[in-house]
Write a structure and sequence with these properties.
The protein is an alpha+beta fold and 82 residues long. It contains 2 helices and 2 strands; from the N terminus they run H-H-E-E. This is Reverse transcriptase domain-containing protein.
């Protein structure tokens, strides 16, 4: 015995609606990509109080323990309290 749902389905209209949904989905993806690119471009680089205090390649000269190290920059100057 067929159910109400299977008897009332319109296969042709359903296919058209699915194609429309796929087109709208692609458009939403494009909008999301543009929005993400805009947000990434306007996002401030990590700075302020919580930003890194120093950047660049360093050489570890001594391991002090508990994850603390003495660092020296590539030009030979020691970094204080790192």
């Amino acid at each position: 015995m067929p159910t109400y749902r299977t008897t009332t389905v319109d296969v042709v209209n359903n296919d058209e609606e699915l194609r429309l949904n796929l087109d709208l989905l692609e458009e939403r993806r494009e909008l999301a990509t543009m929005s993400k690119a805009s947000n990434d471009a306007s996002h401030a680089v990590a700075g302020g109080k919580l930003g890194p205090k120093w950047e660049g390649p360093y050489e570890v000269t001594d391991a002090l323990g508990n994850g603390a190290y003495k660092l020296r920059s590539m030009d030979g100057t020691m970094l204080p309290r790192t």
